[in-house]
């Protein structure tokens, strides 16, 4: 074999071996064989192919070759025995060649060990995804951009009572026709199932002939920036619809009774009018209390979701962090080995040294040595930041708490600041002036909600760039938290009403008017007070004072 041919073989990523079929002796190899199997070229040329390709089916094949049956093999998985006894997973091909009238067997193989590991990880991920789909409380349908059903869970098929023959035959068109035919809004349903590349998320309600009502939410499925399909979630809201209808009927009946009673009251004296006014005030307070309760339940659901997301993220982050740390140690070892090799440059012959220098320049070894450490350090810092965000989510949610517990208010402030940082970073600089307050007996997640409302309001009060200061302090009986902003301030006529339910100075659609009302209720429940000092154009300062013991 001439030098150019050997050079080409040595720079191939595949393992290349030439085998003499009568003796099964290896008569030629490239450098990849030496590197991956850890044999020297001299050792390999003294071996038979069956010394490394020793699986039972491979032994039968090579015996057939020895007997003159030179069958080609295309992409067959196998295992090669390395010098240390370990087995290397490969995908190999074998072809019979003729050279100077003699037959030679050319073996070409590539290392697929990493591919197998990736396939195992992918299979595990798909299994986890399927388990997640099956465990959700909604019926899930996934349609790819070709209009074919990519996935569905069992709850979806049960909800829609899809015939078994359609499921067994994987009749996508039949299944979609079954869905559209089962609802009163058939054309709307079909149009929604065909809008597969729509950027928007949608919500629809479909009424089945059986009287059941399904709420359908859909959103695009993306691969990077490209939409590759659409995910539909179906929730049976029949009971909720019935409850809402009953509530409307009760409301209508109540309104009718109010009208009737009002007509009677109009004929009564001033005392009855005062009683009517008092009842209307109580009804208003009841409505406010109901809205506050709904808001509190919504925040509890958000906390539950945040804690779940934090838990799910925490597990992969843990093993990725461990692996990157281990990789950092391995990289340091390899760099030490490289330095040891470089120290031996003087012992190399001139041609070998020139070849090493060429490779060293091709890979820019000096830059690689300098950059690999920085890359791994930055990766570890990024993982630490992700772990910090996950911990802040868990600290903020506290979904399991039902009783008061001892907690550090400053830690709660830090967690809340981290969660609202994205809202504040474009509006204001945040200055923390902590006094190192002691722990108090409280409900931490509820206090965190108070702090979040005050911080978000402070950010909204700043038109362009401003300053938000968070202070703490304490004495023998109480501690306090102050949140001060350099925003527009509050008009004097509004100061007496800011804690009223539904009162807001924000435009329609920008605020519910419940944030400060809820905060006031939470602080009062803790036996504390919330005060405000503000002047138009000078900013506002909210002070929350809490007892150190319940």
UniProtKB/TrEMBL annotation:
Which InterPro entries does this chain map to?
Answer: HATPase_C_sf, HATPase_dom, His_kinase_dom, HisK_dim/P_sf, PAS, PAS-like_dom_sf, Sig_transdc_His_kin-like_C
Looking at the record, the residues that make up the Histidine kinase domain are: 308-550
| EC nos | 2.7.13.3
* Record field: catalytic activity: ATP + protein L-histidine = ADP + protein N-phospho-L-histidine
Check the record and name the SMART domains matching this protein: HATPase_c, PAS
> Which GO molecular function annotation, any one, does this entry have?
phosphorelay sensor kinase activity
NCBIfam families for this protein: sensory_box
Q: What is this protein called?
A: histidine kinase
**Which species is listed as the source?**
Pseudoduganella buxea
């Amino acid at each position: 074999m001439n030098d150019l041919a050997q050079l080409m073989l040595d720079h191939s990523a595949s393992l290349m071996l030439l085998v003499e079929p009568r003796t099964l002796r290896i008569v030629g190899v490239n450098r990849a064989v030496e590197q991956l199997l850890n044999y020297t070229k001299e050792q390999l040329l003294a071996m038979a192919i069956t010394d490394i390709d020793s699986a039972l089916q491979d032994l039968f094949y090579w015996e057939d070759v020895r007997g003159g049956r030179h069958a080609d093999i295309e992409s067959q998985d196998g295992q090669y025995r390395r010098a240390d006894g370990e087995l290397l997973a490969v995908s190999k091909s074998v072809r019979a060649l003729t050279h100077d009238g003699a037959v030679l067997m050319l073996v070409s193989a590539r290392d697929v060990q990493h591919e197998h590991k990736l396939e195992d990880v992918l299979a595990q991920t798909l299994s986890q995804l399927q388990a997640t789909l099956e465990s959700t409380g909604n019926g899930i349908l996934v349609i790819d951009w070709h209009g074919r059903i990519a996935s569905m869970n069992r709850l979806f098929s049960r909800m829609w009572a899809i015939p078994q023959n359609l499921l067994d035959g994987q009749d996508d068109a039949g299944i979609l026709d079954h869905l559209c035919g089962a609802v009163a809004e058939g054309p709307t349903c079909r149009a929604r199932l065909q809008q597969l590349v729509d950027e928007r998320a949608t919500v629809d309600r479909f009424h089945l002939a059986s009287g059941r009502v399904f709420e359908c939410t859909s959103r695009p499925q993306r691969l990077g920036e490209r939409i590759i399909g659409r995910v539909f979630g179906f929730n049976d809201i029949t009971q909720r619809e019935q409850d809402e209808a009953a509530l409307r009927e009760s409301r209508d009946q109540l309104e009718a009774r109010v009208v009737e009673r009002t007509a009677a009251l109009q004929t009564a004296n001033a005392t009855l009018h005062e009683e009517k006014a008092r009842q209307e005030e109580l009804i208003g307070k009841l409505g406010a209390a109901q809205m506050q309760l709904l808001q509190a339940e919504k925040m509890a659901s958000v906390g539950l979701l945040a804690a779940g997301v934090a838990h799910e993220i925490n597990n992969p982050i843990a093993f990725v962090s461990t692996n990157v740390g281990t990789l950092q140690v391995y990289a340091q070892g390899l760099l030490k080995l490289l330095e040891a090799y470089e120290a031996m440059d003087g012992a190399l012959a001139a041609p070998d040294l020139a070849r090493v220098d060429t490779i060293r320049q091709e890979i820019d070894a000096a830059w690689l040595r300098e950059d690999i450490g920085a890359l791994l350090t930055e990766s570890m810092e990024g993982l630490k930041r992700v772990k910090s965000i996950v911990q802040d989510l868990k600290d903020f949610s506290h979904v399991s708490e039902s009783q008061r517990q001892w907690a550090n208010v400053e830690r709660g402030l830090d967690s809340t600041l981290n969660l609202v940082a994205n809202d504040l970073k474009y509006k204001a600089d945040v200055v923390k002036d902590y006094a190192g307050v002691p722990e108090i007996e409280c409900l931490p997640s509820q206090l965190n909600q108070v702090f979040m409302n005050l911080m978000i309001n402070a950010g909204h009060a700043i038109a362009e760039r401003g300053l938000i200061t968070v202070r703490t302090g304490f004495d023998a009986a109480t501690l306090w938290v102050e949140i001060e902003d350099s925003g527009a301030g509050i008009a004097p006529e509004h100061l007496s009403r800011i804690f009223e339910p539904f009162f807001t100075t924000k435009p329609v659609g920008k605020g519910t008017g419940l944030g400060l009302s809820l905060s006031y209720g939470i602080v009062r429940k803790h036996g504390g007070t919330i005060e405000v000092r503000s002047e138009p154009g000078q900013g506002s300062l909210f002070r929350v004072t809490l007892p150190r013991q319940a």
